[in-house]
Design brief:
mainly beta, single chain
């Protein structure tokens, strides 16, 4: 079997970032692209 090398320059995907806003709104971004919009529902057990 031939010898193979693996070269890695950095992460394969952009970092994820979570942003929050009033009204318990959340936004998940991957790089500059929005990926997920959500609203947190508070419960007495959370």
């Amino acid at each position: 079997m031939a010898e193979q090398s693996l070269y890695i320059d950095g992460p394969a995907v952009p970092a994820l970032r979570v942003e929050t806003a009033s009204g318990r709104r959340l936004l998940l971004r991957q790089g500059a692209d929005p990926v997920l919009f959500a609203v947190q529902r508070a419960t007495p057990r959370a």
